[in-house]
């Protein structure tokens, strides 16, 4: 029962921090230093912290299903029956796939495993929290009022690959935030805040599903009953919280910028460094 309660806490953290640009991996790693599962298989945590992202991804699929599902019914008003493929959505998926290419290369080269071994620690997390926080404040301060792209259909393949390159930073350095890195990349090339966030949601679907499947294959399917319950609870909680947070974020950035998240990141990074020097973590 205690592990289930811990799973709920981790699911809440994942649901909140996956979509706000404040680093879900960083928060989960920091939380795990204080709240640890007891009596579960070796390697379960490494798998758990990635796979509960499936809940967060499912939230995107549910909320944006009409925007990303390319199979549509034909217009019955004109006597057409059957199904058709939406060309605009197919083009969007082309841009999503292009944006994921840099991350795929990182995985094929094994750089992600090297990064996990050497950079997944509180010092790196705190440094990246602060640096990316500063980047958000600076970029938002310099951002022009008029954006080059205000509709996701206007996003180009060049834009997609550039944003995908920024995702690499998050793949290598925990504490960066995948959503934070991609949003920063999008803002730098003139994409509006709402389009930046929306494309980040879509880009996460193949990236995070792929990462989760790789972790599951590495861990294996030999779950104990308790481990399966812990994983399912964390994923379901992550789904529920993510749906609320995505709606909140999209409403928030219609009237505000991302600076508040930058200030939060800097404050958290300083707190983590202070705890490190105090020997608490």
Tell me about this structure.
The protein has helices at 2-17, 24-34, 44-51, 53-63, 65-68, 87-108, 111-119, 122-142, 157-172, 178-188, 193-219, 225-252, 259-277, and strands spanning 71-73, 83-85. The chain has one domain (2-277). The mean pLDDT is 89. The longest helix has 28 residues, at 225-252. It starts with a helix and ends with a helix. 72% of the residues lie in helices and 2% in strands. Strands 1-2 form a two-stranded antiparallel sheet. The protein has 281 residues and is mainly alpha-helical. It is built from 13 helices and two strands.
Throw out a few tags for this protein.
single chain, 281 residues, mainly alpha, two-stranded antiparallel sheet, 13 helices, 2 strands, 2% strand
